[in-house]
Backbone:
Protein backbone atom coordinates (compact mmCIF):
# COMPACT_ATOMS: atom_id res chain seq x y z
CA UNK A 1 0.00 0.00 0.00
CA UNK A 2 0.96 3.58 -0.66
CA UNK A 3 2.46 5.39 2.28
CA UNK A 4 0.68 8.67 1.55
CA UNK A 5 -3.10 8.53 1.37
CA UNK A 6 -6.38 9.66 2.88
CA UNK A 7 -9.59 7.91 3.82
CA UNK A 8 -12.99 8.57 5.32
CA UNK A 9 -14.42 6.79 8.32
CA UNK A 10 -18.00 6.57 9.49
CA UNK A 11 -19.73 8.77 11.99
CA UNK A 12 -23.49 8.35 12.28
CA UNK A 13 -24.49 11.93 11.52
CA UNK A 14 -21.38 13.18 9.78
CA UNK A 15 -18.09 11.95 8.41
CA UNK A 16 -14.58 11.26 9.66
CA UNK A 17 -11.47 12.38 7.74
CA UNK A 18 -8.10 10.65 8.12
CA UNK A 19 -4.76 11.43 6.48
CA UNK A 20 -1.74 9.14 6.51
CA UNK A 21 1.85 9.90 5.56
CA UNK A 22 5.51 9.37 6.39
CA UNK A 23 5.65 12.67 8.28
CA UNK A 24 3.13 14.51 10.43
CA UNK A 25 3.07 17.32 7.87
CA UNK A 26 2.23 14.84 5.10
CA UNK A 27 -0.53 13.33 7.23
CA UNK A 28 -1.97 16.84 7.78
CA UNK A 29 -1.91 17.46 4.02
CA UNK A 30 -3.76 14.20 3.38
CA UNK A 31 -6.37 14.97 6.06
CA UNK A 32 -7.07 18.24 4.25
CA UNK A 33 -7.49 16.30 1.00
CA UNK A 34 -9.89 13.91 2.75
CA UNK A 35 -11.88 16.95 3.83
CA UNK A 36 -12.15 18.24 0.24
CA UNK A 37 -13.34 14.75 -0.73
CA UNK A 38 -16.28 15.16 1.68
CA UNK A 39 -17.46 17.98 -0.58
CA UNK A 40 -16.37 16.86 -4.04
CA UNK A 41 -13.95 14.66 -5.97
CA UNK A 42 -10.56 16.37 -5.38
CA UNK A 43 -9.51 15.44 -8.92
CA UNK A 44 -12.10 17.91 -10.21
CA UNK A 45 -10.54 20.84 -8.35
CA UNK A 46 -7.88 22.71 -10.33
CA UNK A 47 -5.03 24.00 -8.12
CA UNK A 48 -4.87 27.41 -9.78
CA UNK A 49 -5.12 29.87 -6.88
CA UNK A 50 -3.18 29.73 -3.64
CA UNK A 51 -3.99 30.75 -0.09
CA UNK A 52 -1.60 30.94 2.89
CA UNK A 53 -2.65 29.58 6.27
CA UNK A 54 -0.80 29.79 9.59
CA UNK A 55 -1.82 28.55 13.01
CA UNK A 56 -0.46 27.53 16.36
CA UNK A 57 -1.88 25.30 19.11
CA UNK A 58 -0.92 23.74 22.45
CA UNK A 59 -0.69 20.20 20.99
CA UNK A 60 -0.74 18.24 17.71
CA UNK A 61 -4.40 17.31 18.00
CA UNK A 62 -5.60 20.86 18.53
CA UNK A 63 -3.26 21.92 15.73
CA UNK A 64 -5.00 19.50 13.35
CA UNK A 65 -8.39 20.98 14.23
CA UNK A 66 -7.02 24.52 13.82
CA UNK A 67 -5.53 23.63 10.43
CA UNK A 68 -8.78 22.17 9.14
CA UNK A 69 -10.83 25.03 10.58
CA UNK A 70 -8.43 27.50 8.96
CA UNK A 71 -9.15 25.83 5.63
CA UNK A 72 -12.90 25.76 6.29
CA UNK A 73 -12.85 29.52 6.90
CA UNK A 74 -11.03 30.09 3.57
CA UNK A 75 -13.42 27.72 1.77
CA UNK A 76 -16.40 29.58 3.19
CA UNK A 77 -15.28 33.16 2.75
CA UNK A 78 -13.54 32.74 -0.64
CA UNK A 79 -16.12 30.16 -1.87
CA UNK A 80 -13.20 27.93 -2.80
CA UNK A 81 -12.29 24.26 -2.84
CA UNK A 82 -8.69 23.09 -2.40
CA UNK A 83 -6.91 20.12 -3.91
CA UNK A 84 -3.19 20.62 -3.19
CA UNK A 85 -1.51 21.38 0.10
CA UNK A 86 2.01 22.04 1.33
CA UNK A 87 2.35 21.98 5.11
CA UNK A 88 5.45 22.78 7.16
CA UNK A 89 5.50 22.22 10.90
CA UNK A 90 7.72 23.77 13.49
CA UNK A 91 6.75 22.26 16.81
CA UNK A 92 3.08 23.09 17.24
CA UNK A 93 3.26 25.90 14.68
CA UNK A 94 1.91 25.29 11.21
CA UNK A 95 2.45 27.20 7.98
CA UNK A 96 0.80 26.03 4.82
CA UNK A 97 -0.16 26.86 1.28
CA UNK A 98 -3.39 25.50 -0.14
CA UNK A 99 -4.09 25.55 -3.89
CA UNK A 100 -7.53 25.34 -5.40
CA UNK A 101 -10.23 27.23 -7.26
CA UNK A 102 -13.64 28.84 -6.79
CA UNK A 103 -16.61 26.50 -6.42
CA UNK A 104 -18.26 25.70 -9.75
CA UNK A 105 -21.54 24.04 -8.77
CA UNK A 106 -22.16 22.41 -12.15
CA UNK A 107 -18.66 20.92 -12.40
CA UNK A 108 -17.89 20.15 -8.75
CA UNK A 109 -21.40 19.03 -7.73
CA UNK A 110 -20.51 19.90 -4.12
CA UNK A 111 -22.40 17.47 -1.87
CA UNK A 112 -22.32 19.38 1.34
CA UNK A 113 -20.86 22.39 3.08
CA UNK A 114 -18.52 21.73 6.02
CA UNK A 115 -19.49 23.61 9.18
CA UNK A 116 -16.44 22.83 11.27
CA UNK A 117 -13.77 20.30 12.28
CA UNK A 118 -14.62 18.71 15.64
CA UNK A 119 -12.80 17.13 18.57
CA UNK A 120 -14.74 13.91 18.03
CA UNK A 121 -12.52 10.92 17.18
CA UNK A 122 -9.67 13.41 17.16
CA UNK A 123 -6.38 11.55 17.12
CA UNK A 124 -2.88 12.20 15.86
CA UNK A 125 -0.22 9.51 16.14
CA UNK A 126 1.71 6.70 14.51
CA UNK A 127 0.23 3.66 12.82
CA UNK A 128 1.53 0.13 13.47
CA UNK A 129 3.66 0.43 10.36
CA UNK A 130 5.31 3.60 11.62
CA UNK A 131 3.41 6.07 9.43
CA UNK A 132 1.80 9.21 10.85
CA UNK A 133 -1.96 9.55 10.90
CA UNK A 134 -4.18 12.53 11.73
CA UNK A 135 -7.98 12.27 12.00
CA UNK A 136 -11.19 13.81 13.28
CA UNK A 137 -14.89 14.04 12.45
CA UNK A 138 -16.10 17.06 10.47
CA UNK A 139 -19.58 18.49 11.00
CA UNK A 140 -21.54 18.89 7.78
CA UNK B 1 -27.76 -0.84 22.36
CA UNK B 2 -27.81 -3.40 25.15
CA UNK B 3 -31.02 -2.92 27.15
CA UNK B 4 -29.54 -4.47 30.30
CA UNK B 5 -27.68 -1.18 30.83
CA UNK B 6 -30.98 0.51 31.68
CA UNK B 7 -33.66 0.53 34.29
CA UNK B 8 -36.95 0.41 32.37
CA UNK B 9 -39.16 3.05 34.01
CA UNK B 10 -41.92 2.62 31.42
CA UNK B 11 -42.20 1.39 27.83
CA UNK B 12 -40.90 4.82 26.75
CA UNK B 13 -38.49 5.84 29.51
CA UNK B 14 -35.11 4.22 30.18
CA UNK B 15 -32.98 5.34 33.10
CA UNK B 16 -29.28 5.02 33.86
CA UNK B 17 -28.59 5.44 37.57
CA UNK B 18 -25.57 7.64 38.36
CA UNK B 19 -22.24 5.82 38.46
CA UNK B 20 -18.62 6.97 38.45
CA UNK B 21 -18.47 10.75 38.04
CA UNK B 22 -22.12 11.15 37.01
CA UNK B 23 -23.82 13.78 39.18
CA UNK B 24 -27.36 12.96 38.06
CA UNK B 25 -29.09 10.08 36.27
CA UNK B 26 -29.36 9.91 32.48
CA UNK B 27 -32.72 9.23 30.86
CA UNK B 28 -33.47 8.14 27.30
CA UNK B 29 -37.03 8.49 26.01
CA UNK B 30 -37.63 5.90 23.31
CA UNK B 31 -39.44 2.67 22.65
CA UNK B 32 -37.61 -0.62 22.83
CA UNK B 33 -37.03 -0.88 19.08
CA UNK B 34 -35.58 2.65 18.81
CA UNK B 35 -33.35 2.05 21.82
CA UNK B 36 -32.07 -1.24 20.44
CA UNK B 37 -31.09 0.53 17.20
CA UNK B 38 -29.41 3.45 19.00
CA UNK B 39 -25.64 3.60 18.84
CA UNK B 40 -23.77 2.75 22.06
CA UNK B 41 -22.15 6.19 21.64
CA UNK B 42 -25.46 7.77 22.72
CA UNK B 43 -25.12 5.94 26.05
CA UNK B 44 -21.52 7.12 26.45
CA UNK B 45 -22.35 10.69 25.51
CA UNK B 46 -25.47 11.08 27.67
CA UNK B 47 -23.67 9.65 30.71
CA UNK B 48 -20.76 12.04 30.02
CA UNK B 49 -23.19 14.99 29.98
CA UNK B 50 -24.46 13.83 33.39
CA UNK B 51 -20.93 14.44 34.76
CA UNK B 52 -20.87 18.17 33.96
CA UNK B 53 -20.86 20.64 36.88
CA UNK B 54 -24.16 22.17 37.96
CA UNK B 55 -26.37 19.83 35.96
CA UNK B 56 -29.91 19.68 37.34
CA UNK B 57 -32.22 16.68 37.63
CA UNK B 58 -30.96 14.47 34.77
CA UNK B 59 -29.33 14.39 31.34
CA UNK B 60 -31.98 13.54 28.76
CA UNK B 61 -31.91 12.00 25.29
CA UNK B 62 -34.88 12.30 22.95
CA UNK B 63 -36.25 9.40 20.85
CA UNK B 64 -34.28 10.55 17.77
CA UNK B 65 -30.97 10.61 19.66
CA UNK B 66 -27.84 9.67 17.76
CA UNK B 67 -24.08 9.95 18.06
CA UNK B 68 -23.15 13.64 18.13
CA UNK B 69 -20.27 15.76 19.40
CA UNK B 70 -19.88 15.64 23.15
CA UNK B 71 -23.64 15.83 23.59
CA UNK B 72 -25.66 13.29 21.66
CA UNK B 73 -27.79 14.88 18.96
CA UNK B 74 -31.20 14.81 20.65
CA UNK B 75 -29.66 15.74 24.03
CA UNK B 76 -31.20 18.03 26.67
CA UNK B 77 -29.47 19.23 29.84
CA UNK B 78 -30.12 22.14 32.23
CA UNK B 79 -27.54 23.88 34.40
CA UNK B 80 -27.89 26.10 37.44
CA UNK B 81 -25.42 29.02 37.56
CA UNK B 82 -25.80 29.18 41.35
CA UNK B 83 -24.48 25.64 41.63
CA UNK B 84 -21.41 26.09 39.45
CA UNK B 85 -23.41 25.31 36.31
CA UNK B 86 -21.72 25.49 32.91
CA UNK B 87 -22.49 26.52 29.39
CA UNK B 88 -21.17 24.23 26.65
CA UNK B 89 -20.45 25.27 23.07
CA UNK B 90 -20.61 21.56 22.17
CA UNK B 91 -24.00 21.33 23.90
CA UNK B 92 -25.39 23.87 21.45
CA UNK B 93 -23.51 22.69 18.39
CA UNK B 94 -22.06 24.34 15.30
CA UNK B 95 -25.34 25.23 13.67
CA UNK B 96 -26.57 27.52 16.42
CA UNK B 97 -30.36 27.96 16.45
CA UNK B 98 -30.88 25.67 13.50
CA UNK B 99 -34.64 25.27 13.40
CA UNK B 100 -37.87 24.91 11.48
CA UNK B 101 -40.69 27.28 10.64
CA UNK B 102 -43.96 26.34 8.99
CA UNK B 103 -46.32 28.64 7.09
CA UNK B 104 -49.90 28.28 5.88
CA UNK B 105 -50.32 28.84 2.16
CA UNK B 106 -54.13 28.85 2.10
CA UNK B 107 -53.93 26.39 -0.80
CA UNK B 108 -55.48 22.95 -1.11
CA UNK B 109 -53.26 20.19 -2.49
CA UNK B 110 -55.57 19.94 -5.50
CA UNK B 111 -55.02 23.67 -6.25
CA UNK B 112 -51.30 23.20 -6.01
CA UNK B 113 -51.07 20.27 -8.42
CA UNK B 114 -51.14 22.27 -11.70
CA UNK B 115 -48.55 24.80 -10.50
CA UNK B 116 -46.36 22.56 -8.34
CA UNK B 117 -43.59 22.17 -10.88
CA UNK B 118 -43.43 25.88 -11.65
CA UNK B 119 -43.48 26.75 -7.96
CA UNK B 120 -40.69 24.28 -7.16
CA UNK B 121 -38.57 25.63 -10.03
CA UNK B 122 -39.08 29.26 -9.01
CA UNK B 123 -38.40 28.59 -5.33
CA UNK B 124 -35.23 26.74 -6.29
CA UNK B 125 -34.16 29.64 -8.50
CA UNK B 126 -34.93 32.32 -5.89
CA UNK B 127 -33.71 30.80 -2.63
CA UNK B 128 -29.95 30.31 -2.58
CA UNK B 129 -29.16 26.72 -1.60
CA UNK B 130 -26.08 24.54 -1.43
CA UNK B 131 -22.33 25.03 -1.24
CA UNK B 132 -20.96 28.41 -2.31
CA UNK B 133 -24.36 30.09 -2.69
CA UNK B 134 -24.78 33.69 -1.62
CA UNK B 135 -27.78 35.82 -0.80
CA UNK B 136 -28.69 39.15 -2.37
CA UNK B 137 -28.23 40.97 0.93
CA UNK B 138 -24.71 42.07 1.68
CA UNK B 139 -24.37 43.47 5.17
CA UNK B 140 -21.90 46.17 6.11
CA UNK B 141 -20.47 46.24 9.64
CA UNK B 142 -23.25 48.37 11.13
CA UNK B 143 -26.03 46.34 9.51
CA UNK B 144 -24.37 43.09 10.60
CA UNK B 145 -24.45 44.24 14.22
CA UNK B 146 -28.03 45.46 13.87
CA UNK B 147 -29.03 42.05 12.48
CA UNK B 148 -27.20 40.23 15.29
CA UNK B 149 -28.99 42.36 17.87
CA UNK B 150 -32.39 42.40 16.21
CA UNK B 151 -32.93 38.94 14.69
CA UNK B 152 -36.23 38.50 12.87
CA UNK B 153 -37.32 41.91 14.24
CA UNK B 154 -34.45 43.45 12.28
CA UNK B 155 -35.60 41.61 9.14
CA UNK B 156 -39.22 42.73 9.55
CA UNK B 157 -38.09 46.35 10.06
CA UNK B 158 -36.17 46.10 6.80
CA UNK B 159 -39.32 44.95 5.02
CA UNK B 160 -38.70 41.18 5.07
CA UNK B 161 -41.96 40.12 6.64
CA UNK B 162 -44.77 41.34 8.80
CA UNK B 163 -45.27 42.08 12.48
CA UNK B 164 -47.54 39.03 12.86
CA UNK B 165 -44.56 36.78 11.99
CA UNK B 166 -42.85 37.89 15.18
CA UNK B 167 -45.78 36.83 17.37
CA UNK B 168 -45.24 33.31 16.11
CA UNK B 169 -41.47 33.16 16.55
CA UNK B 170 -39.68 32.07 19.73
CA UNK B 171 -38.43 35.10 21.71
CA UNK B 172 -40.74 37.27 19.60
CA UNK B 173 -38.11 37.05 16.88
CA UNK B 174 -35.32 38.59 18.91
CA UNK B 175 -33.15 36.87 21.50
CA UNK B 176 -32.29 39.41 24.18
CA UNK B 177 -28.74 39.61 25.50
CA UNK B 178 -27.01 39.25 22.12
CA UNK B 179 -23.56 40.86 22.05
CA UNK B 180 -22.33 41.42 18.50
CA UNK B 181 -18.95 42.62 19.82
CA UNK B 182 -18.33 39.11 21.18
CA UNK B 183 -18.68 37.75 17.64
CA UNK B 184 -15.34 37.59 15.81
CA UNK B 185 -14.60 39.36 12.55
CA UNK B 186 -14.08 35.93 10.95
CA UNK B 187 -17.59 34.87 11.96
CA UNK B 188 -19.06 38.11 10.60
CA UNK B 189 -17.05 37.73 7.40
CA UNK B 190 -18.47 34.23 6.92
CA UNK B 191 -21.97 35.68 7.21
CA UNK B 192 -21.55 38.82 5.11
CA UNK B 193 -23.47 37.50 2.12
CA UNK B 194 -25.11 34.42 3.62
CA UNK B 195 -28.26 36.06 5.02
CA UNK B 196 -31.25 34.49 3.30
CA UNK B 197 -29.44 31.31 2.23
CA UNK B 198 -30.60 27.80 3.00
CA UNK B 199 -27.24 26.07 3.43
CA UNK B 200 -26.72 22.40 2.64
CA UNK B 201 -26.82 18.98 4.32
CA UNK B 202 -30.20 18.28 5.85
CA UNK B 203 -31.50 21.81 5.31
CA UNK B 204 -34.48 22.32 3.05
CA UNK B 205 -37.58 24.21 2.05
CA UNK B 206 -40.52 21.90 1.56
CA UNK B 207 -44.10 22.13 0.32
CA UNK B 208 -46.18 19.74 2.42
CA UNK B 209 -49.77 18.56 2.66
CA UNK B 210 -51.69 17.95 5.88
CA UNK B 211 -52.66 14.28 5.57
CA UNK B 212 -53.70 13.17 9.02
CA UNK B 213 -55.21 14.83 12.09
CA UNK B 214 -54.60 13.33 15.53
CA UNK B 215 -55.78 16.16 17.76
CA UNK B 216 -58.68 17.99 16.17
CA UNK B 217 -58.79 20.80 18.71
CA UNK B 218 -55.10 21.68 18.51
CA UNK B 219 -55.13 21.28 14.72
CA UNK B 220 -57.99 23.75 14.47
CA UNK B 221 -56.15 26.18 16.74
CA UNK B 222 -53.05 25.91 14.53
CA UNK B 223 -55.42 26.19 11.52
CA UNK B 224 -54.14 22.95 10.05
CA UNK B 225 -56.84 21.25 8.02
CA UNK B 226 -56.73 18.06 5.94
CA UNK B 227 -55.58 18.55 2.36
CA UNK B 228 -54.10 21.99 2.99
CA UNK B 229 -50.63 22.94 1.85
CA UNK B 230 -47.97 24.39 4.13
CA UNK B 231 -44.36 25.47 3.54
CA UNK B 232 -41.67 24.37 5.99
CA UNK B 233 -38.21 25.92 6.13
CA UNK B 234 -35.33 24.15 7.91
CA UNK B 235 -32.05 26.04 8.30
CA UNK B 236 -29.90 27.83 10.86
CA UNK B 237 -27.34 30.52 11.54
CA UNK B 238 -25.17 29.63 8.55
CA UNK B 239 -21.45 30.46 8.53
CA UNK B 240 -21.65 32.86 11.46
CA UNK B 241 -22.97 30.20 13.83
CA UNK B 242 -20.47 27.63 12.56
CA UNK B 243 -17.55 29.97 13.15
CA UNK B 244 -18.75 30.97 16.65
CA UNK B 245 -19.10 27.27 17.53
CA UNK B 246 -15.61 26.54 16.21
CA UNK B 247 -13.91 29.41 18.03
CA UNK B 248 -15.60 29.01 21.42
CA UNK B 249 -15.23 25.24 21.42
CA UNK B 250 -11.48 25.74 21.07
CA UNK B 251 -11.34 28.37 23.80
CA UNK B 252 -13.39 26.21 26.16
CA UNK B 253 -11.25 23.11 25.50
CA UNK B 254 -8.14 25.06 26.45
CA UNK B 255 -9.71 26.92 29.40
CA UNK B 256 -11.60 24.02 31.05
CA UNK B 257 -8.71 22.70 33.20
CA UNK B 258 -8.13 26.23 34.53
CA UNK B 259 -11.75 26.24 35.73
CA UNK B 260 -11.18 22.91 37.45
CA UNK B 261 -13.46 21.14 34.97
CA UNK B 262 -12.42 17.61 34.07
CA UNK B 263 -13.79 16.93 30.61
CA UNK B 264 -14.81 13.33 29.97
CA UNK B 265 -14.66 14.20 26.26
CA UNK B 266 -12.98 17.29 24.77
CA UNK B 267 -16.03 17.99 22.68
CA UNK B 268 -18.00 18.63 25.90
CA UNK B 269 -15.91 21.76 26.28
CA UNK B 270 -17.65 24.18 28.58
CA UNK B 271 -17.09 27.11 30.92
CA UNK B 272 -18.85 28.16 34.12
CA UNK B 273 -21.86 30.30 33.35
CA UNK B 274 -20.54 33.02 35.64
CA UNK B 275 -17.05 33.08 34.06
CA UNK B 276 -15.99 35.76 31.53
CA UNK B 277 -15.66 33.05 28.84
CA UNK B 278 -19.10 31.62 29.66
CA UNK B 279 -20.60 35.10 29.45
CA UNK B 280 -18.79 35.91 26.19
CA UNK B 281 -20.08 32.71 24.63
CA UNK B 282 -23.59 33.45 25.84
CA UNK B 283 -23.47 36.89 24.18
CA UNK B 284 -22.07 35.50 20.92
CA UNK B 285 -24.39 32.47 20.88
CA UNK B 286 -27.42 34.72 21.38
CA UNK B 287 -26.25 36.86 18.46
CA UNK B 288 -26.11 33.67 16.38
CA UNK B 289 -29.67 32.80 17.46
CA UNK B 290 -30.72 36.19 16.07
CA UNK B 291 -28.80 35.47 12.89
CA UNK B 292 -30.78 32.22 12.43
CA UNK B 293 -34.09 33.95 13.15
CA UNK B 294 -33.23 36.70 10.64
CA UNK B 295 -32.18 34.10 8.11
CA UNK B 296 -35.43 32.15 8.30
CA UNK B 297 -37.34 35.45 8.17
CA UNK B 298 -35.59 36.57 4.96
CA UNK B 299 -36.17 33.15 3.37
CA UNK B 300 -39.84 33.47 4.34
CA UNK B 301 -39.96 36.79 2.51
CA UNK B 302 -38.37 35.27 -0.63
CA UNK B 303 -40.89 32.41 -0.47
CA UNK B 304 -43.77 34.88 -0.25
CA UNK B 305 -42.41 36.79 -3.27
CA UNK B 306 -42.36 33.60 -5.35
CA UNK B 307 -45.89 32.66 -4.27
CA UNK B 308 -47.13 36.18 -5.08
CA UNK B 309 -45.66 36.00 -8.59
CA UNK B 310 -47.35 32.70 -9.36
CA UNK B 311 -50.48 33.16 -7.27
CA UNK B 312 -51.21 36.88 -6.99
CA UNK B 313 -53.06 37.62 -3.76
CA UNK B 314 -51.65 34.59 -1.95
CA UNK B 315 -51.12 35.08 1.73
CA UNK B 316 -48.59 33.00 3.69
CA UNK B 317 -49.01 33.17 7.47
CA UNK B 318 -46.54 31.82 9.98
CA UNK B 319 -47.75 29.01 12.22
CA UNK B 320 -44.60 28.93 14.34
CA UNK B 321 -40.80 29.05 14.28
CA UNK B 322 -38.78 26.71 16.53
CA UNK B 323 -35.05 26.43 17.16
CA UNK B 324 -33.49 23.08 18.00
CA UNK B 325 -29.82 23.92 18.75
CA UNK B 326 -29.82 26.41 21.60
CA UNK B 327 -29.07 27.25 25.20
CA UNK B 328 -31.82 29.35 26.79
CA UNK B 329 -32.33 30.79 30.24
CA UNK B 330 -35.69 29.51 31.45
CA UNK B 331 -37.66 29.12 34.67
CA UNK B 332 -38.45 25.54 35.62
CA UNK B 333 -40.08 24.07 38.70
CA UNK B 334 -37.67 21.73 40.46
CA UNK B 335 -38.95 19.96 43.57
CA UNK B 336 -41.79 22.45 43.80
CA UNK B 337 -39.56 25.53 43.54
CA UNK B 338 -39.01 27.78 40.52
CA UNK B 339 -35.37 27.93 39.42
CA UNK B 340 -33.65 29.85 36.66
CA UNK B 341 -31.75 27.35 34.53
CA UNK B 342 -29.76 27.36 31.30
CA UNK B 343 -31.33 24.65 29.19
CA UNK B 344 -29.17 23.21 26.40
CA UNK B 345 -31.07 21.60 23.56
CA UNK B 346 -28.79 19.96 21.01
CA UNK B 347 -31.02 18.62 18.26
CA UNK B 348 -34.07 18.91 20.50
CA UNK B 349 -37.10 21.17 20.09
CA UNK B 350 -38.44 23.41 22.81
CA UNK B 351 -41.95 22.11 23.57
CA UNK B 352 -43.58 24.34 26.17
CA UNK B 353 -46.87 23.18 27.60
CA UNK B 354 -50.12 25.12 28.03
CA UNK B 355 -50.03 28.29 30.11
CA UNK B 356 -46.36 29.08 29.58
CA UNK B 357 -45.82 32.87 29.57
CA UNK B 358 -43.34 32.62 26.67
CA UNK B 359 -46.10 31.46 24.31
CA UNK B 360 -48.06 33.86 22.09
CA UNK B 361 -51.28 35.02 23.75
CA UNK B 362 -53.56 33.27 21.27
CA UNK B 363 -51.87 29.87 21.73
CA UNK B 364 -51.09 30.07 25.42
CA UNK B 365 -53.98 27.91 26.57
CA UNK B 366 -53.22 25.09 24.11
CA UNK B 367 -49.42 24.90 24.15
CA UNK B 368 -46.52 25.47 21.79
CA UNK B 369 -46.55 24.11 18.25
CA UNK B 370 -43.64 21.66 18.00
CA UNK B 371 -42.38 21.28 14.43
CA UNK B 372 -40.67 18.00 13.60
CA UNK B 373 -38.94 17.84 10.23
CA UNK B 374 -38.83 14.63 8.25
CA UNK B 375 -36.22 13.80 5.68
CA UNK B 376 -36.89 14.34 2.00
CA UNK B 377 -39.61 11.90 1.04
CA UNK B 378 -40.82 11.08 4.54
CA UNK B 379 -43.46 12.69 6.72
CA UNK B 380 -43.08 15.71 8.98
CA UNK B 381 -45.23 16.31 12.06
CA UNK B 382 -46.68 19.10 14.12
CA UNK B 383 -47.03 18.32 17.81
CA UNK B 384 -48.07 20.43 20.76
CA UNK B 385 -46.24 20.91 24.07
CA UNK B 386 -47.66 19.26 27.19
CA UNK B 387 -47.60 19.81 30.94
CA UNK B 388 -45.95 16.41 31.34
CA UNK B 389 -43.18 17.46 28.97
CA UNK B 390 -42.36 20.40 31.22
CA UNK B 391 -41.76 17.90 34.04
CA UNK B 392 -40.07 15.19 32.04
CA UNK B 393 -37.61 16.99 29.76
CA UNK B 394 -37.64 20.70 30.68
CA UNK B 395 -40.29 21.15 27.99
CA UNK B 396 -38.37 19.51 25.14
CA UNK B 397 -39.12 16.97 22.43
CA UNK B 398 -37.38 15.33 19.47
CA UNK B 399 -36.36 17.40 16.42
CA UNK B 400 -36.55 15.06 13.47
CA UNK B 401 -36.02 11.52 12.38
CA UNK B 402 -32.34 11.41 13.31
CA UNK B 403 -29.78 9.65 11.14
CA UNK B 404 -29.61 5.88 11.22
CA UNK B 405 -26.80 5.57 8.68
CA UNK B 406 -23.64 7.53 7.87
CA UNK B 407 -23.37 9.66 4.71
CA UNK B 408 -20.80 7.24 3.40
CA UNK B 409 -23.10 4.24 3.76
CA UNK B 410 -25.90 6.23 2.14
CA UNK B 411 -23.87 7.05 -0.99
CA UNK B 412 -22.92 3.39 -1.32
CA UNK B 413 -26.56 2.38 -1.17
CA UNK B 414 -28.28 5.06 -3.28
CA UNK B 415 -27.70 7.19 -6.38
CA UNK B 416 -29.02 10.74 -6.34
CA UNK B 417 -30.63 10.51 -9.79
CA UNK B 418 -32.46 7.25 -8.94
CA UNK B 419 -33.78 8.81 -5.76
CA UNK B 420 -35.01 11.92 -7.57
CA UNK B 421 -36.86 9.68 -10.09
CA UNK B 422 -38.26 7.40 -7.40
CA UNK B 423 -39.54 10.30 -5.30
CA UNK B 424 -41.02 11.95 -8.42
CA UNK B 425 -43.01 8.76 -9.03
CA UNK B 426 -44.44 9.22 -5.52
CA UNK B 427 -45.41 12.79 -6.41
CA UNK B 428 -42.50 14.41 -4.56
CA UNK B 429 -40.43 16.86 -6.61
CA UNK B 430 -36.78 17.28 -5.58
CA UNK B 431 -34.74 20.32 -6.58
CA UNK B 432 -31.11 20.31 -5.49
CA UNK B 433 -27.79 21.64 -6.79
CA UNK B 434 -26.07 18.34 -5.92
CA UNK B 435 -27.12 14.77 -6.73
CA UNK B 436 -24.50 13.42 -4.34
CA UNK B 437 -26.01 15.61 -1.65
CA UNK B 438 -29.41 14.04 -2.43
CA UNK B 439 -27.94 10.53 -2.06
CA UNK B 440 -26.35 11.40 1.27
CA UNK B 441 -29.71 12.64 2.49
CA UNK B 442 -31.67 9.61 1.23
CA UNK B 443 -34.85 9.06 3.26
CA UNK B 444 -33.66 5.52 4.02
CA UNK B 445 -30.55 6.88 5.77
CA UNK B 446 -32.78 8.21 8.54
CA UNK B 447 -34.67 6.52 11.34
CA UNK B 448 -38.39 6.02 10.91
CA UNK B 449 -39.76 9.46 11.78
CA UNK B 450 -43.17 7.91 12.52
CA UNK B 451 -41.68 5.72 15.27
CA UNK B 452 -39.70 8.66 16.69
CA UNK B 453 -42.77 10.90 16.88
CA UNK B 454 -44.90 8.10 18.29
CA UNK B 455 -42.34 7.57 21.06
CA UNK B 456 -42.22 11.32 21.86
CA UNK B 457 -46.02 11.32 22.06
CA UNK B 458 -46.25 8.17 24.19
CA UNK B 459 -43.47 9.37 26.49
CA UNK B 460 -45.59 12.47 27.10
CA UNK B 461 -42.94 14.91 25.78
CA UNK B 462 -45.37 16.43 23.25
CA UNK B 463 -48.69 15.37 21.72
CA UNK B 464 -49.20 14.55 18.05
CA UNK B 465 -51.41 17.05 16.20
CA UNK B 466 -51.02 16.50 12.46
CA UNK B 467 -48.91 14.61 9.95
CA UNK B 468 -47.53 16.31 6.84
CA UNK B 469 -46.57 14.66 3.57
CA UNK B 470 -43.90 16.20 1.32
CA UNK B 471 -44.98 17.43 -2.13
CA UNK B 472 -41.82 19.25 -3.25
CA UNK B 473 -38.45 19.72 -1.61
CA UNK B 474 -35.79 22.36 -2.30
CA UNK B 475 -32.69 20.70 -0.92
CA UNK B 476 -29.58 22.59 0.03
Residues:
Amino acid sequence: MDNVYWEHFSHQADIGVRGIGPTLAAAFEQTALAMTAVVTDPALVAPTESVEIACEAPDDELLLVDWLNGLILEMATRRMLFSRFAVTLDGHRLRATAWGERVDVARHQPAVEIKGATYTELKVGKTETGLWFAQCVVDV
Amino acid sequence: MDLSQFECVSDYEWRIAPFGRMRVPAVIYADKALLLEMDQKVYEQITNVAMLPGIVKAAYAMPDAHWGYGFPIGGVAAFDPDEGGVISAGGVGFDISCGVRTLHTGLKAADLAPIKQKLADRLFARIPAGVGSTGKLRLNAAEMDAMLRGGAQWAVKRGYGIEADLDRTEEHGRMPGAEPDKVSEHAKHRQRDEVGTLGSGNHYLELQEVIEIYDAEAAERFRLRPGEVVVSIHCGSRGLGHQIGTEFLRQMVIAAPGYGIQLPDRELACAPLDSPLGQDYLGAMRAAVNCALANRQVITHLTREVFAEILPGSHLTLIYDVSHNTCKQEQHIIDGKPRSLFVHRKGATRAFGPGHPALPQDLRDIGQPVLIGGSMGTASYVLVGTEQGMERSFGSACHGAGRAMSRHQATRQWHGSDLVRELASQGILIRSPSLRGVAEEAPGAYKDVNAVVEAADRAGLARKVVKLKPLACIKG
Observations:
- The first strand of chain A starts at residue 5 and ends at 10.
- The first helix of chain A runs from residue 24 to 39.
